[in-house]
Amino acid sequence: MSQQPVVFTRRSFLEGLNLSVGGLALGLVPTVSAEAAVPGVKSAPELRPNVFVHVAADGLVTIVCHRSEMGQGIRSSMPVVIADELGADMARVKVVQAVGDAVYGDQNTDGSSSIRGVFQELRRTGATARTMLVAAAAKRWKVKPAQCEAREHAVYLRDGQRSLGFGELVADAVKLPVPKAEAVQLRPLTELRRVGTELPLLDGPAYVTGKAVFGADVKLPGMLIAVVARPPVVGGRVVRFDATRALAVPGVKQVLELPAPHRPYLFQGWGGVAVLAENTWAAMRGRQALDIIWENGPNESYDSEKYRLALLESVRAPGKPARSVGDVDKALASAARVVEAEYYAPHLSHAPMEPPVALARVAGGVCEVWAPTQHPQAARTEAAKMAGLAEDKVTVNVTLLGGGFGRKSKADFVAEAVFLAKTAGVPVRVQWTREDDIRHDYYHSASAQKLSAGLDAQGKPTAWLHRTAFPAIRSTFSEDVTGPVARDLNQGVLDLALDIPNVRAEMGEALAKVRIGWLRSVNNIFHGYAVGSFMDELAHARGVDPRDNLLEVIGPARKVSVAELGVTTLPNYGAPVEAHPVDAGRLRRVIERVTEMSGWSERAKNGRTLGLAAHRSFLSYVGVVVSMTKDAVGKARVDEAWVVVDAGLVVNPDRVRAQMEGSIIFGMSLAMYGSITMKEGATEQSNFRDYRLVRIAEAPKAIHVDIVRSEEAPGGVGEPGVPPVAPAIVNALFALTGVRVRELPIIRTVPV
Amino acid sequence: MSIRVRVNGVEQELDVDPEMPLLWALRDVLGLTGTKYGCGQALCGACSVHLDGQVVRACVTPIRRADGREVTTIEGLSPDGGHPLQRAWVELGVPQCGFCQSGQLMCAAALLAKKPQPTDADIDQSLAGNLCRCGTYTRIRAAVKKAAGVPDSK
Amino acid sequence: MIRALPVLASVVLLAGAGGCRRQPDSDAARWESLPPVDARDLRPLDVFQRIEDPAQRSRALFLETSRVYLHPRCSNCHPDGDSPYQDSGETLHNPPVTRGPEDKGVVGMECTGCHQEKNLELARVPGAPNWHVAPRSMAWVGKSPRELCEQLKDPERNGGKTLAQLVEHNAHDALVGWGWAPGSGRQPAPGTQAQFGALVAAWVATGAQCPSEEARP
Asked: Where is each 2Fe-2S ferredoxin-type domain found (chain B) (predicted)?
């Protein structure tokens, strides 16, 4: 993180276009480019100790949110951390959204990393500004800085006699050197006044009045809207096309072919033919009127049903070891009883409510992009490549995201917009239809797993063998990927606490035939499903209550060492194991609390059918219990759900609760209905008619969320709620119907 | 063909393809971007608006159907964001990504206009066409009831 | 590219419905004397003339028209509950809809909130004038041809129509007519509306007899 003051210029792209910016201050986008200031904007002295926070002479504090807002509430959370360190009054804080620029450090809003990854650094940005304001006040009062304190947007002398507002101190503070990181003292956590309290939703008013600016809501003069006919099979290409009928559609202006991608697919577009029109309707009608001959290419052979069988075959044979303790083969051979089960989970599509969309303008040697991107720096890199410009000539403005879930970390839709804008010579917005979104996604990986447990004569587990096979995300980025490697198993296999003397995890081969991407909680989805289900199967096989079995298999509260896990290193979501150990105690606690909350022990007496699962992911621990009932026509439904989350220190409890509530619904959709299948390389689903999501009537009557109060280092929040949901549902379904669902989605086996 | 339509109380005259869905007339022609495109097939409800007070999915409603009629979008639901539903939505922190919420609100507003004291079943039926991928459904139910002054037992 | 989804399930269903099954009664014997017909077609009126007995002819005519009434394009919106069906009739309408007090949906989910007066090609939403679900009293799903026949003659359960009005409705109503032009790759009802109307008229003219409980087309 830079400690040097950065010269900012203020540019207002949207204001000049009469766009309403409402509660979302997208209008003022600070950039680090050395561009001239907008004429007429007077530059008053401002304290700018770093790129995240600055204080104006009128006292207005501007805090930059460098992560993308996609529903997790980061714009309502992250700035509060900085403001609390600074001692600012949120009523006098303006939050602006960062453009894509490496000066902000990592901006990729995925991996549930926004708070956990940079909590301390963010605090330091606010603390640095505070240190300078306090120093300015101390100098003026001729006292030591330690005699002053910053709070409520002012610096107070501790005797309470004198105070100076932040604005009044700016002129002096800007003359001071920016202190080094070591010289900046963070406040004790107790002084972070709003962190951990009920915080308002910053963009709430904009969302409910229609003023919030999403990707498709930015308009430029002379802009055309493009709708693209993409090859039905990834890696396919256009053989020839006839645009005559498309060009005859009123409003259609141009028809352009996009470059076909080469393996590995990275963030390239799919290629295809774009229809550029004055409005979206004309572009859609124009696309319908295109006559295109496609060549599908080698992925035409992909049949996801055959692939499912191949993946299952793969886990029936030994694979490459990824985790090993003791001698599993011997323990299984000498076991009194072996419990085994195979699990399959299909491809999934992200399906954010806002389909991919991006607007680009390439003119005068610069490129500007407006996009709902989770990864503005990757978008900038792709845009620069497409525009043939250096990255410093490219500005990526980040709008609000109408959901992301990992889809919008990929910059393919930005690359399309930039290519078309450059080629057409006018600004172009690429609008994906829902069909485009479902058929041309970076799909969540299909997977097969086999779990085996050996039990001794007393029924105690003595061996645990977990085999997993799935095409890995790296296949999208590299040609030589033949399946998962050990670090792909970090998510729910390597970091699983087991009080079993002989443990091994193995990986099977799996070649990717579609673009594989990361979807909310990623490999934890299927690993959590299989492990969570198998724990329940084990309980029933042993005749032990599923909660007691789960606690026994996890073992006593302890920080599980790398040696006990049977790995040499643990990727651990990029965090040091010392700060974020695999903590069996924290996992036990969420299980104990969620079963207490849900009346687990009294479930038989109360006539309830409950299912339990718990999972560690993204350094957080989540336990879920769901209640299932059968409705009047015999369909099983989730009636009520309980979630306990231990995410360490929590900044914004209401948004954490919202993420857990959302995780239940997201997990229900994928568990009950979610499935993307391919025939002859093409995706069979197209829209919400055949890629079904949970609707309001299916939502549980209540989702109860409890957050473990903790001062541990923050863990992730956006994703960890998802993995335990599917197994909790499958386990409840077993309790309800006696049917064990080993293949997702559930609707293939049981009516839901 | 010229189409005359009153949008949020303002008379508008549009010279567009009469088959153009109302959604694109609102967004691309009139610049009212609060109404969202989510599926184009009346499956998700993100484009819900009122046509003479009735909820329609703007993505499948040809603009000619609105000729001579009154359209209300999220921008016209209240002058200042002060509709009881909008207030309840903010107070209960309903939105996550926010993309579907204008459609949810327009449906909920039509529901309350007809049934001022809705039950959970009423809410589930009237909002059955509005998908929310973030999963805000339980808060939507609570916020509709809060706006209606119906006690929430959960 | 928007691809049409094949409606395989309906094809299978129709193949079964179009074939001739052995029936235990004399109606069946009459029926079997009729020439076979493709699942997509209706037998022309004149082939029924070979059945001499008017009552038997009437019953055969009704069985033929029941292939239309009970076709998913028609019966899906004459459901046995509060929600219409879609596709081959095995799945409920998606998104979920309920009939509401006037069989036109509930507030916020009125039928005409999505369905226009004609089919929409790009959006795949079917449409026809006065799109609505049949009243509960007019439920057809799950009925045998005989039950359906008795129901159609009962003004309490046929929308208050005389037989003459029934003929007119079937022959000319635009919403009924949608069944033969459902759009977006949906399997249409067999034959044409004109053929159907003529068959219904002939059934009425022959005394509107109902087939036996076991009789199936």
From this structure: 1-77
